Fold:
Amino acid sequence: TLLIGILLAVFVLYIFLRRIGTTLVISIAIPVSIIATFNLLYFNHLTLNIMTLGGLALGAGMLVDNAIVVLENITRLRNTGLPLIEAIIKGTGEVGSAITASTLTTIVVFLPIVYLHGASGALFKDMAWTVAFSLISSLLIALMVIPMLVSVFFPKTDVPEKQSSGITYYGYSKFLGKVVDKRGLVI
Structure:
């Protein structure tokens, strides 16, 4: 199930990003995050069981979120004409605190489960630790590995042309204008 989920995530990323380089960078980041999570599980004496694998499956969807935010910001800065290394440093720095805050708020939601007592604590503790570890891994991968992969896989000299950011939503601005005009009804 985890492998199918990862393959589907990569497929959906390619459909929306429409760039093989960005999809490849994120596709490499997913297994690296999972291996890092396995290391954290091992050093905390957690075994692979249904609950830890379930937590890993829950976290697999969230593994790509931080990577996408960092990668898209680097790509945006690169498209404005910044040199590759400068775009990597500035792009990661601009979103670093935002993705750290986002990841920590999600971890804070799962950590109280670790302190449950009784049967529910024994049942869900491993899952909570696994989700927390996978989110920590994804954050570290997004801040350290994604910039390194971008520097390896993206061209250093050519400034890319302006590219569309994927699917264009025709009529969205007209729809949004109608929604704003009738905000009382929408609310």
Observations:
- The radius of gyration is 19 Å.
- DSSP finds seven helices and no strands in the chain.
